[in-house]
Amino acid sequence: MPTFLASRHAEHVPVNGAVEPHTLLGRLRPHRRAVFVVAVALLLVQMAAAMVSTAVEQTPTIDEPVYVGTATVYVQQHDLSYNPEHPPLGKLIIGAGMLFAHPHLDPAFRGDQTELGRHVLYESGNDPWRVMLWARLPVIVLTLLFGLVVLAFARELAGRTGALTALALYAFSPDVIAHGSLATLDVPATGFLLTSVWLVWRARRRPALYLPLSAAALGAAVATKMSMLPAIPVVLLLAVASVWHAGRSARGTGPEEDTGARGARLLGLGAAAAAGMAVVVVAVVWATYLAVDPRLRWAAPADLPAVHGLRAFVIDHLPVPRPCRDGMRVQFGFENASWQGFLFGRLYRGSLWYYLPAALLVKTPLGMTALWTAGSLTLLTVRRLRPVAPYLLIPPLLLLASAMTGSRDLGVRYALFIPVFLAVAAGCTVAVRGRRPARAQAQPPAQAEAQAQAARRSWPGRVGTLRRSWSERSVTVTAALVLFVAVSSLLAYPYYLPYSNEAFGGPDKTYLRLHDSNVDWGQDLGRLADRLESRYPHDKVWLVYKGAGVPSAYGIDATDPRTVPADRVHGLLAVSDTAIDKADARLKALLTTSRRIDEVGHSMTLFRRP
User: What is the 8-class DSSP label of residue 522?
Assistant: First the structure.
């Protein structure tokens, strides 16, 4: 084994010589470790409290019953038949909660995955509140653990102050809190990918230790959600780069070795390491399917979409289980379908390439957007941080480009990797340090002043002046922006799912610009029941609900107004905001002749019908 593969370095030393800025935290040297630990604990406790309290209050979103029902089947019946479009790992994580919830499932049940979710939650004598809380708790725990990955990654790059900045952005991110409190797959897949990238970055020092761990984390990401597949070649190329750097940095290479031969040897080692990682990724995917059913019993669905051309060739030759390959066919079937989108008041059919960037602009706190931009520029312009730029920027940008070509404009959850990866990048803003000007030789004062003015007017001089100015103010500005983010996030509590920033009117205006999981994913059926009981106990209720919940299970006695003539619809009309955005002519006529009187959770609107 080459010596650099077994090289060891002190784990606590920041990568590339990162030095913490001179801050109050740095001055409190005897106590800074304790201050750091307390700050980390407070951020994570705040995040945990926000997620748990949100999980307790929200009814099932549209996707959750499918995952909960499938997880129950995994745990109780070891059957892979349901929800093949996603690999099993995320649902096994949710299934860990099912081990404590003990939901009843009729072994004789037959139906599709939507009917399965409804059966488990509402038709089997189970308490839907209890089942959903237990299903969400494992994802909440994972979300907090991934916060520690964000912290560790940023600390290596920018010290303790940068680590706290990154963790604060992660812990106060409305999107991360919203989806981290749901029994869905977006946060687990993103967190596993970040862990893989962090470990492959650490492999620049100890490839033999970190590359297998990185491969396992990458396999976990792919075994959670199919959308992580494009990240595989990127992480493998980053692994080659890490092995190359480790070899170039290693001591003890004989001077007689030709530079070209050494480069070829390092590339060969990198390629071999990448191939080994690919094997580990495939092994992890196989392991998740075998964990559900060791016999891999599988019957392809009768309505399995047909896939042709290059896609079919790739699917047929992937070394993964048959259920996984058929799941890819289901996903391609979804991509070939035509979906409705809604952006800035426009309802359309199909997809817009700029939908996700526009939605992120609406749903990201303003201070967070500023810090993401500053952090990305810092990675690209500060010499000692440039090596990490490909690791932090290329994977999320590639996945974003892939998601932008998709057919489903349904929410920023398809780009949840952006706030997670860029939180680490934003932590690097405090690592900017201005260069001290070189000490000049003794010169006459007039000549020295003229040279100084000329240097300041030059382009490098202007850049240096800006860098020194930012380095002096970076910690203060960053702290102010983080505080702005925290206040914006806390003011949105507990309505994180419909969050939009102040420039777009806040959470109660989100439905005017976005729809579906950006604002109204069926999460407020329980809150609607409470509102009707407290304020409108004697009103006749008409309900247009977009979601997977069953209104009667929460005590809501309502009728769909679209099933009767319009002149019979009188009293209270409750409408999901997504239904308002996508209203047909009949519903629009009802809404235009009604008076808006209330709203629930920024996702449902109540009207009075005369």
Answer: S
Distance CA 195, CA 201 (A): 10
Q: CA quadruple 243, 249, 254, 257: dihedral positive or negative? A: positive
| pLDDT tens-digit map of 301-356 | 888 998 888 889 989 999 999 999 999 999 998 888 889 999 999 999 999 999 99
Q: How many residues does the chain have?
A: 610
Beta bridge partners of 559: 542
Question: 83: left (phi > 0), else alpha (psi -120 to 50), else beta?
Answer: left
- Give the DSSP letter string of 28-57: -TTTHHHHHHHHHHHHHHHHHHHHHHHHHH
Residue 573, token pair as written in the block: 């009309």
Q: Which of 107, 105, 111 is nearest to 81 (CA)?
A: 111
The CB density around residue 109, as the number of other CB atoms within 10 Å, is 15
**What's the pTM value of the predicted model, to 2 decimals?**
0.90
Are 507 and 494 in contact by the 8 Å Cβ rule? The answer is no
Query: What backbone phi and psi angles, to 5 degrees, belong to 120?
Result: -65, -40
